Amino acid sequence: MDSLIATSAAIFYALAIATIIPGLVQQVGIRTKTVLISASLALLCHAWLLSDLILSGSGQNLSILNVASLIGFIISLFMSAAMMKTRIWFLLPVVYSFAAINLSVAAFVPTAFITHLEHNPKLLLHIALALFSYSTLSIGALYAIQLAWLDHKLKNKKALGINPNLPPLMMVERQLFKIILIGTALLSATLITGFIFVEDMFAQGKAHKGILSFMAWVIYSVLLWGHYHKGWRGKKVTWFAIAGATLLTLAYFGSRFVQEIILN
């Protein structure tokens, strides 16, 4: 049953991507309703699959593949909602492809890492904050890449203005720093709850998560300070955003990847 749900979700994500790509390539209008309907059906199937993978049986199966699929769902959900207010067509194919690949792997390559968060609501809060902070700052990294691409095209005098599906450069920059500001606030809350609620946060095998997450927090804090006080823009912003997201990826998935995928 899970394989059928995963296949359906992947097909709907692919349909949304197939609706977007011609508009980007041929610089014609994109059928927003078709994309929204396809994405909504994909998200419904994705949520159904996650409920089966994570909540079936005793406890919660928070394996690395299930968590990656959950993050893909959160990012896709946020970006699909943003579709109605801003032109993010350049990013949606990347987001939907990431989600489709993750859910397919999670469905067809079952792994297990059983937890019992129902007995520890404080840890559940910490994990929820970690998931939302990582998802938000990953979206920020995507916006930073889009900002760098638009800036490159403009500097090379490429005619972007005639493409109705690409957002203005300054709008992307404003949205980027709003996202990073929200993500940094969530990351701050994640670190605080980790220090308070996770008793063995710096135990062997776990210390790197806190250290790398704190390093990412420093990078994002410096980036926000540099932008609002020094007027940082351009490539420096992109590299800072990507560096922060990379550190968080290593923090959240590094050791789990070795333990669950390589060693097992």
What does this molecule look like?
This protein has eight helices and two strands; from the N terminus they run ααβααβαααα. The chain is mostly helical and 264 residues long. The chain has two domains: 1-118; 120-264, no CATH class. Strands 1-2 form a two-stranded antiparallel sheet. Helix 2 runs parallel beside helix 4 (92-108). It is flat, with a radius of gyration of 19 Å. Keywords: Membrane, Transmembrane, Transmembrane helix. Residues 37-262 form the Cytochrome c assembly protein domain.
Short description:
The chain is mostly helical and 264 residues long.
Share of β-strand residues: under 5%
The helix-strand sequence is HHEHHEHHHH
Number-wise, the strands total 2
Number of helices: 8
Specify the helix fraction band: over 70%
Mean pLDDT figure: 88
Strand order of the biggest β-sheet: 1-2
Q: How would you sum up the major sheet?
A: 2 strands, antiparallel
* Radius of gyration of CA atoms, rounded to a whole number: 19 Å
